TrEMBL record:
PPR repeats lie at residues 141-175, 277-311. The keyword Acetylation does not apply. It comes from the Eukaryota. Pfam families: PPR, PPR_2. GO terms for biological process: RNA modification. This is Pentatricopeptide repeat-containing protein. Keywords: Repeat. It comes from Sesamum angolense. One of its GO terms (molecular function) is RNA binding.
């Protein structure tokens, strides 16, 4: 009855689509749209917005194409959501076509459409196009500056990002946090910490928020700056920025990377039990694993299961790594076998590599090789690398040589594989192969 009534008014249909979308009922919103025989631009904009916000990106673009086919022109309500979906799909050719259509409609220099175009180009890895558009815009808002800064940081163009940041007439919290996060992601811990210190000054116009705290903490972990991390923790507590579960989890990771497991566990225990999500549990398991405390990693895993949190692939990577570094072979193999049968988690390259390492460290090289041979996918460099290391450690030169040859195929540019194989061949008196490897080294200039 309702659908029949909507056929006479696209305006009412648009309102219904917006209502359903606001409640998260995209199925009903889509049904309303498709049941309206003569959709209006308003209705198209409503469903495009709904699909885009809920990341139905392909549907968004299909509806936009239909809109254009019917002769309707996009406006500043249409393009930002279409471009968001283009960015989600990294469909740069579609984005460039959309850019062209927006130019015909006279909209690329609209502040919102222009910023959306810059964001799309940045997320599609086209920072050059983003910068050209940015330079052409007569009016830029802070979001357009931030989008380009994030793009430069993502591409590793740190100096360009800093130059743009310094030129900004007005910086907001996103500007500062993007720079700090970018420095951290590019391994520039000292620059990230310096910028955070500048932002934290009493006379700073923009103060850190909890996202900023999360962005700067990896810098402490990367540089093992435990004291700096503790000062940031004190600052976060003083400003009330440490109550968010994601921040507390970030502190767990920071303390673990800085070698302070006691502080890491204290932060983990401070997270309210009902707010300890999978990321928090995975971080704590990985912390124990990275410090060779396999028993603690196993105990934490079992606590997680008892808490009703379902593991994922990252959980098992940490768990199996912990078992490997602690010599818990039987326990590790049991968890590996239970991944798909008990927890319905798909086994991937990294899990097989962990088991190869687990068996290899225990000297069970034949079984480790059998694991590689039975993998449902082609073994990667991590698995063969683990077998190579095990062969070297246990002086099984036959296994080591086999693994090294496989690594040549997978990583022909890795000089370490050639150098180590020379040693293996010398120990086996394979003089001809040593000479061949030297030729390969010379040809690859490694």
């Amino acid at each position: 009855m309702l659908l029949r009534g909507l056929r006479g008014t696209a305006f009412l249909a648009a309102k219904m689509v917006a209502m359903y979308a606001s409640s998260g009922d995209i199925t009903s919103a889509s049904r309303i749209f498709h049941s309206t025989p003569n959709p209006s631009p308003l209705l198209f904009n409503s469903i495009i917005r709904a699909f885009s916000l809920y990341r139905y990106s392909e549907e968004t673009l299909h509806v936009y194409v239909r809109m254009c086919t019917l002769g309707f022109r996009g406006d500043y309500f249409t393009y930002p959501f279409v471009l968001k979906s283009v960015a989600d799909l990294c469909f740069v050719r579609f984005g460039k076509c959309t850019h062209g259509l927006s130019m015909k409609d006279g909209l690329p220099f609209d502040m919102y459409v222009g910023t959306s175009l810059i964001d799309m180009y940045v997320k599609c890895g086209e920072c050059g196009d983003a910068r050209r558009l940015f330079d052409e815009m007569p009016v830029r808002d802070v979001a357009s500056w931030n989008a380009l800064i994030s793009g430069y940081m993502r591409d590793g163009a740190v100096d360009l990002a800093r130059d743009l940041f310094d030129e900004m007439p007005l910086k907001n919290i996103v500007s500062w946090t993007s720079m700090i996060s970018g420095y951290t992601q590019n391994g520039l811990a000292s620059q990230a910490l310096e910028l955070f210190d500048e932002m934290s000054k009493e006379d700073s116009d923009v103060k850190p928020n909890w996202v900023t705290i999360m962005s700067v903490l990896p810098a402490c972990g990367h540089s093992s700056a435990l004291e700096r991390g503790k000062k940031i923790h004190d600052f976060a507590q003083e400003k009330g920025l440490d109550s968010h579960p994601s921040v507390q989890t970030a502190f767990v990771g920071m303390y673990a990377k800085c070698g302070s497991l006691a502080d890491a566990r204290w932060c983990f225990d401070r997270i309210k039990p009902n707010l300890r999500n999978l990321v928090a549990w995975n971080t704590m398991i990985a912390a124990y694993a990275s410090h060779g405390l396999g028993i603690e990693a196993v105990r934490t895993f079992e606590q997680m299961i008892q808490a009703g949190v379902h593991p994922d692939g990252i959980t098992f990577t940490g768990l199996l790594s912990g078992c490997s570094h602690s010599g818990l072979v039987a326990i590790g193999l049991r968890y590996f076998d239970s991944m798909s049968s008990v927890y319905f988690v798909e086994k991937k390259h990294e899990h097989y590599a962990c088991v190869v390492d687990l068996l290899g460290r225990a000297g069970r090289l034949v079984e480790a090789y059998e694991i590689i041979s039975q993998m449902p996918m082609q073994a990667g460099a991590s698995a063969w690398g683990s077998l190579l290391a095990a062969g070297r450690c246990h002086r099984n030169l036959e296994i080591a040589e086999l693994a090294a040859k496989k690594l040549f195929i997978l990583e022909p540019e890795n000089s370490g594989n050639y150098v180590f194989s020379q040693i293996v061949c010398l120990l086996n008196w394979h003089v001809e192969e040593v000479n061949h490897l030297r030729v390969l080294l010379k040809n690859h200039r490694v």
